[in-house]
């Protein structure tokens, strides 16, 4: 019977057309993966009936909108809608999904700012937040600093501008921060120097200026530091040579001076 189905895994099965509204009859469904197909149109409103759903993955399709009923999926842990054709603001109702661990809306055409009414403060369990490669704009909101479990934050390849918020320093579990390919300005903020677990920091192709702060040495876990295509100036601080980096890219800036002698094969 339809009501007894728990899992549907049809990844990469050449499915096409719209998703039938009858999917809402699968009231016991906990796992739904229809990724890597050619499904089109909107997710049906009836998807809000799947209140036991923990995993929803429609990545790599041609879905064009998310219904407001998504907010009814209170058991959802992983929501993946990357690489579709979503052209709209981020639905505010996603903020009601308080059990989310993964939220991946990357590789779409989402518009506007990250809404404050997204109720980010309710997403206490969120570990992966991926909004990379969209058309989101405005400033990076300071309320992102209220995600205590966040480990990976992707905001790259959008239209964000202005300063990097100081509240980023509250994300003590953050390991990966991608802010490349935006229009971020001002200097490298001190808030980034208070992330003890950060190992991958990418800020390429922005409008950042000024020196690299000497306090960069406090990022002891850092392995990848990428700041190409900005307006960074002054000299490379000696302290970078003390980090055990796998990759350092400071190309296409206006940094002067000589390469510090602290750079050696043991640290790079």
From TrEMBL:
<keyword id="KW-0325">Glycoprotein</keyword>
<keyword id="KW-1003">Cell membrane</keyword>
<dbReference type="InterPro" id="IPR055414">
    <property type="entry name" value="LRR_R13L4/SHOC2-like"/>
</dbReference>
<keyword id="KW-0812">Transmembrane</keyword>
<keyword id="KW-1133">Transmembrane helix</keyword>
<dbReference type="InterPro" id="IPR032675">
    <property type="entry name" value="LRR_dom_sf"/>
</dbReference>
<keyword id="KW-0433">Leucine-rich repeat</keyword>
<keyword id="KW-0677">Repeat</keyword>
<protein>
    <recommendedName>
        <fullName>Disease resistance R13L4/SHOC-2-like LRR domain-containing protein</fullName>
    </recommendedName>
</protein>
<dbReference type="InterPro" id="IPR053213">
    <property type="entry name" value="RLP29"/>
</dbReference>
<feature type="domain" description="Disease resistance R13L4/SHOC-2-like LRR">
    <location>
        <begin position="21"/>
        <end position="105"/>
    </location>
</feature>
<dbReference type="InterPro" id="IPR003591">
    <property type="entry name" value="Leu-rich_rpt_typical-subtyp"/>
</dbReference>
<comment type="similarity">
    <text>Belongs to the RLP family.</text>
</comment>
<keyword id="KW-0472">Membrane</keyword>
<dbReference type="GO" id="GO:0005886">
    <property type="term" value="C:plasma membrane"/>
</dbReference>
<dbReference type="Pfam" id="PF23598">
    <property type="entry name" value="LRR_14"/>
</dbReference>
<dbReference type="InterPro" id="IPR001611">
    <property type="entry name" value="Leu-rich_rpt"/>
</dbReference>
<keyword id="KW-0732">Signal</keyword>
<dbReference type="Pfam" id="PF00560">
    <property type="entry name" value="LRR_1"/>
</dbReference>
